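Hey, quick one: can you model this chain's 3D structure?
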Amino acid sequence: MKEKMSYEEAFTELERLVVGIEDPERDLSGIENDVKRAMELIEYCRSAIRGEQEKIENIINKSDLSNENI
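Sure thing. Here's the predicted structure for all 70 residues.
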């Protein structure tokens, strides 16, 4: 995934793709590309969540260290 997008934009696109993939009336042509794109977006979202989780853990760890000196 080359373009820079927010987590919210990626998740919205992913939701749209899932609805299309799950549509029983959908023609199967092009579904492979949609599944590939969905997998890219899933990895992007996971990475974004991991990054935010690390930031939160760092904040908590710094807070725990500073509270020990009180």
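One thing worth noting: Residues 31-68 form the longest helix (38 residues).
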